[in-house]
Design a protein that fits this description.
Elements lengths: L9 H13 L3 E6 L3 E7 L2 E11 L26 H17 L5 E9 L7 H7 L10 E12 L3 E3 L2 E4 L1 E10 L3 E2 L9 H19 L6 E10 L5 E2 L2 E10 L2 H21 L3 E8 L4 E3 L1 H15 L3 E3 L11 H6 L2 E9 L20 H17 L1
Parallel strand pairs: 3-4, 3-5, 5-16, 6-15
Antiparallel strand pairs: 1-2, 2-4, 6-16, 7-14, 8-12, 8-13, 9-11, 10-12
Helix pairs in contact: 2-8, 4-5, 6-8
């Protein structure tokens, strides 16, 4: 009910610390600003496994009518990170109760800023995977498209990598009644946008998932003045590094050629976003085994990767692990709304299932 945006999770991290300290865990606060790590040492020495939950909310007005809807104007947990945090705290409670039976160490990672700047990368930079070194890591995301009681797994690539695309078109200003004396950056930008659509529709294998979206266009100052500059921003989502590099070159070449033909100049800049999320095969098999002990035959293999990004990918670049989906939808309760919607909700019956799968995964790995 008290959501906090990226890097502002002060109250949330305080609640997390209080719970972890009450369980007798070693707690480190202030990693990557508002991140928290709890360390549970088992009854005997062994490997170290980490579980991660993200804590940040989104700048969206909560419109659902439930007792636990947001009490903070303009902010809500529209992506279920409150549920992720609750389930990881639940797993810490259960595992703390049986710590004498655990052969190894468990790290509980509560991470800020998944929705914005990639809090995972900063936590890694500040040593969250060290002291002790993490041998494997697991994380989950709630999925209203899957029914409660279902666990979704995927081998290999599960989420896309992203690049921000910034294109500047530089023309020449003139009076709107004398367009021949200028170079219309708006008209040029329209041609660039149209030409860029050919990259995905005609330049990439139709069976390869690629998305190129121009999301903003800004330029011009008056209705009767030829614009001398336009700035466009967009996003590129890919699942293959080779295709990613080729599409970026195509964006540069097409923009350059269109601008040259129409007498304009240009600048194209790419800002890398989150990396490709790739699940480790052995860890995914282990996760499937653990989840099957909780939900039986309701473990389903997700057939297609998502072109949405997820900064859990940064952890998987460093250590083997798996990222999975927890079913939180219910047709009977009318809970199907997609994430990042003002009506997003979950069926809370899923919370105990997510907690149990977390616990069972830890026990399977530390055997």
């Amino acid at each position: 009910m008290y959501p906090e945006l990226a890097n502002q999770e002060v109250r949330t991290s305080g609640v997390v610390c209080e719970v972890l300290q009450g369980l007798g865990l070693k707690v480190q606060r202030g990693i990557a600003g508002t991140g928290v790590v709890g360390l549970l040492e088992g009854g005997s020495k062994g490997r170290t496994v980490a579980l991660r939950a993200d804590m940040d909310a989104l700048p969206i007005q909560d419109k659902k009518d439930v007792p636990y809807s947001s009490r903070v104007e303009g902010k809500m947990h529209a992506c279920g990170h409150d549920a992720h945090t609750a389930m990881l705290l639940g797993a810490a409670m259960v595992l703390a109760d049986i710590r004498d039976r655990i052969n190894g160490t468990v790290k509980f990672i509560f991470q800020p800023a998944e929705e914005s700047i990639g809090g995972a990368a900063r936590m890694i930079e500040e040593g969250v995977l060290n002291n002790p070194d993490v041998d494997a890591i697991f994380g989950l995301h709630v999925s209203p498209e899957l029914d409660v009681g279902t666990v979704g797994i995927r081998y290999g690539s599960a989420n896309a990598c992203s690049d921000d695309v910034i294109i500047e078109i530089l023309g020449k200003s003139a009076h709107g009644a004398k367009p021949d004396e200028g170079i219309d950056a708006i008209a040029v930008s329209a041609q660039v946008v149209n030409a860029l659509q050919q990259i995905v529709s005609r330049g990439v294998d139709p069976l390869e998932p690629v998305v190129l979206t121009i999301g903003t266009i800004a330029g011009g100052s008056q209705a009767n003045i030829i614009a001398d500059s336009v700035k466009m921003t967009g996003t590129l989502r890919t699942l293959d590094s080779g295709i990613r590099d080729r599409v970026k070159k195509d964006i540069e070449n097409i923009t350059a050629n269109v601008c040259s033909a129409l007498g304009a100049r240009h600048r194209v800049t790419f800002e890398p976003g989150y990396p490709l999320l790739v699940n480790d095969e052995a860890m995914t098999k282990l996760l499937k085994k653990a989840a099957s002990k909780i939900v039986g035959d309701k473990v389903v293999e997700i057939q297609k990767p998502r072109l949405g990004v997820e900064d859990f990918a940064y952890y998987l670049e460093k250590v083997p692990g798996a990222f999975w989906r927890l079913g939180t939808g219910s047709t009977r309760k009318g809970i199907r709304c997609i994430a990042h919607s003002p009506y997003f909700d979950i069926d809370e019956d899923a919370l105990c299932i997510g907690t149990a799968v977390h616990v069972q995964t830890v026990l399977e790995y530390l055997q």
